[in-house]
């Protein structure tokens, strides 16, 4: 006699049959439908699978619409970013002469410098901004002096940071003005202000590492070198301290860093002081370094603005700015108080894994000295903004008689660097054209 099945037995048998049916469906390749029926909370994902013809375990993220990893990098909104453009900003030499130091001295013995207020927004508008600082921060016990052996108050570090700079290059001919201790202390003060440093190192481990910034998925590398240190030799115990401009050394570093970055910036302290045109050696080095993998060369040291070229090298457009001039200083002559804020826009195509120079532009600047309450002071201004302010009667320190000076600076800078805006992009890269201005 067969015993009767209770409700509990019937429920168990029914659940068992459902489970076996589900296993059959999954094993027959109809997992999408089973998931949709038995897991309603996951229906949107099932619909994606159905639309792509894929089954679980065979999902290709590149085929998923609005997927966080679709050919790019995740965005805050959950959609893929196919391209990203970043703006790198560069300025020239920051010099600290005696007059500039005195201009910031306060009654209590501290220092306050307000050099960069008129251009702070221009510097801060970029994603990463750099400049060359030609002075030591060796402390008050070493004495604050300008040329020929520079040593500035520590307050300059925060002044540069608050202006919007992120990177301070210290590989220049004044790096040893206060000896090894001064150079090492300079690094400590700059880094303590939240600034990156480049070209001078406190250990061999530091010297062997590279400065690589990941800016919204675009990896930018920086290298910096100086032609020398004003005849002051490097002690044998510190062979790693300063990056000296040796061609084979630079080529070797480019070869090592290039596979790690999307874009490579090379900062060179080189050339002849007060000479606009680059030397034949500079031209040869620039060509070799770009061919080896550098994308941009930023020059400093001549203290005057030099020519800029957008050239074809390898697969894309590249930039050589032989000298960015003086960003601030108190030297004689209009040319020696002229500089630029260079804007370099870099675009990365995440789908194709390609990065290219998409735009180069610049803002001519002028280092102005003026008097306020009987004290000589200094500021960096945009030339075009100042011309407009003078014409509109809005500038507090320039007079109408200063207009010809600024117009001369604008004409000279435009002649050397070319038009103020150049769009390079992939089109220029394919055309293999170069500007030999």
Task: Spell out the key features of this protein.
437 residues, alpha/beta, Purple Acid Phosphatase, chain A, domain 2, 2 domains, 9-stranded mixed beta sheet, 15 strands, 24% strand, globular, disordered C terminus
Which fold name is given in CATH as the topology of the largest domain? Purple Acid Phosphatase, chain A, domain 2
What's the number of domains?
Answer: 2
Number of helices: 13
CATH architecture level-2 label of the largest domain: 4-Layer Sandwich
Description:
With 437 residues, this protein is of the alpha/beta class. The protein has two domains: 10-59, no CATH class; 85-431, Purple Acid Phosphatase, chain A, domain 2. It contains 13 helices and 15 strands. The chain has helices spanning 7-27, 31-38, 43-52, 98-103, 120-124, 155-163, 179-192, 204-208, 247-257, 280-292, 383-391, 403-417, 425-431, and strands at 83-94, 128-133, 167-169, 196-198, 211-215, 218-226, 263-269, 296-300, 308-313, 316-321, 326-328, 338-349, 354-372, 375-382, 421-423. The strands form two sheets. Strands 1, 2, 3, 4, 11, 12, 13, 14 and 15 form a nine-stranded mixed β-sheet that branches. A six-stranded mixed β-sheet has the order 5-6-7-8-10-9. Helix 7 links the parallel strand 3 and strand 4 (196-198). The chain is globular, with a radius of gyration of 30 Å.
Please sum up the structure shown.
The protein is of the alpha/beta class and 437 residues long. It has 13 helices and 15 strands.
Layout of helices and strands:
Layout: H1 7-27, H2 31-38, H3 43-52, E1 83-94, H4 98-103, H5 120-124, E2 128-133, H6 155-163, E3 167-169, H7 179-192, E4 196-198, H8 204-208, E5 211-215, E6 218-226, H9 247-257, E7 263-269, H10 280-292, E8 296-300, E9 308-313, E10 316-321, E11 326-328, E12 338-349, E13 354-372, E14 375-382, H11 383-391, H12 403-417, E15 421-423, H13 425-431
Parallel strand pairs: 1-2, 1-11, 2-3, 3-4, 6-7, 7-8, 8-10
Antiparallel strand pairs: 1-12, 5-6, 9-10, 12-13, 13-14, 13-15
Helix pairs in contact: 1-2, 2-3, 9-10, 11-12
């Amino acid at each position: 006699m067969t015993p009767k099945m209770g409700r509990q037995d019937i429920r168990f048998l029914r659940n068992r049959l459902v489970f076996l049916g589900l296993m059959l469906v999954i094993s027959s390749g109809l997992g999408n439908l089973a998931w949709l029926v038995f897991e309603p909370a996951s229906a949107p994902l099932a619909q994606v699978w159905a639309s792509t013809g894929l089954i679980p375990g065979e999902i290709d993220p590149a085929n998923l619409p609005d997927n966080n990893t679709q050919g790019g990098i995740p965005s805050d909104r959950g959609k893929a970013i196919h391209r990203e453009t970043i703006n790198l900003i560069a300025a020239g030499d920051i010099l600290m002469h005696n007059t500039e130091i005195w201009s910031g001295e306060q009654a209590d013995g501290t220092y306050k410098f307000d050099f960069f207020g008129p251009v702070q927004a221009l510097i801060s508008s970029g994603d990463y901004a750099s400049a060359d600082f030609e002075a030591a921060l060796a402390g008050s016990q070493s004495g604050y002096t300008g040329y020929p052996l520079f040593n500035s108050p520590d307050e300059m570090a925060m002044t540069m940071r608050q202006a919007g700079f992120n990177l301070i290059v210290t590989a220049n001919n004044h790096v040893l003005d206060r000896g090894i201790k001064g150079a090492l202390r300079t690094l400590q003060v700059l880094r303590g202000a939240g600034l990156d440093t480049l070209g001078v190192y406190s250990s061999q481990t530091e010297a062997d590492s590279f400065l690589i910034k990941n800016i919204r998925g675009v990896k930018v590398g920086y290298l910096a070198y100086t032609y020398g240190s004003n005849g002051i030799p490097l002690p044998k115990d510190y062979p790693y301290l300063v990056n000296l401009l040796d061609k084979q050394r630079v080529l070797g570093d480019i070869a090592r860093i290039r596979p790690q970055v999307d874009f490579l910036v090379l900062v060179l302290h080189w050339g002849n002081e007060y000479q606009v045109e680059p030397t034949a050696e500079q031209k040869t080095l620039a060509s070799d370094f770009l061919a080896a993998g550098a994308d941009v060369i930023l020059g400093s040291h001549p203290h005057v603005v030099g020519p800029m070229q957008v050239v074809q090298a390898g697969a894309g457009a590249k930039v050589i700015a032989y000298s960015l001039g003086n960003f601030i200083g108190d030297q004689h002559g209009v040319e020696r108080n002229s500089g630029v804020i260079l804007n370099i826009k870099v675009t990365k195509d995440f789908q194709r894994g390609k990065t290219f120079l998409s735009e180069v532009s610049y803002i001519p600047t002028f280092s102005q000295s003026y008097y306020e309450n009987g004290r000589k002071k200094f500021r960096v201004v945009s030339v075009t903004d100042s011309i407009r302010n003078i014409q509109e009667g809005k500038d507090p320190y320039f007079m109408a008689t200063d207009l010809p000076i600024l117009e001369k600076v604008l004409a000279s800078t435009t002649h050397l660097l070319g038009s103020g805006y150049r769009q390079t992009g992939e089109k220029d890269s394919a055309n293999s054209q170069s500007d030999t201005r």
